[in-house]
Specification:
By secondary structure, the chain is mainly α. It has a domain at 27-62. The protein contains one helix and no strands. The chain has one helix at 9-62. The protein is rod-shaped and about 95 Å long. It starts with 8 loop residues before the first helix and ends with a helix.
Length: 63
């Protein structure tokens, strides 16, 4: 007795799989962008503003 082949599984769940993949991918992208990337950029900008203020203060003190 042969086992019948499983057909149509990919087609039946294709749109569900694509939708879940896109949804999770976009969600992960937003989580990274707002949770990690923007905080890093803010920290970097704060550092450079502080550095520029220190340089300006040193230039004013030596002039």
């Amino acid at each position: 007795m042969a086992i019948a082949p499983i057909t149509g599984k990919l087609r039946k769940r294709f749109w569900l799989d694509v939708g879940c993949a896109l949804g999770l991918g976009v969600s992960a992208g937003y989580a990274y962008w707002y949770g990690v990337h923007l905080k890093h950029i803010e920290r970097q900008e704060t550092f450079y503003v502080k550095l520029e203020k220190e340089r300006a203060a040193a230039a004013a003190a030596s002039a």
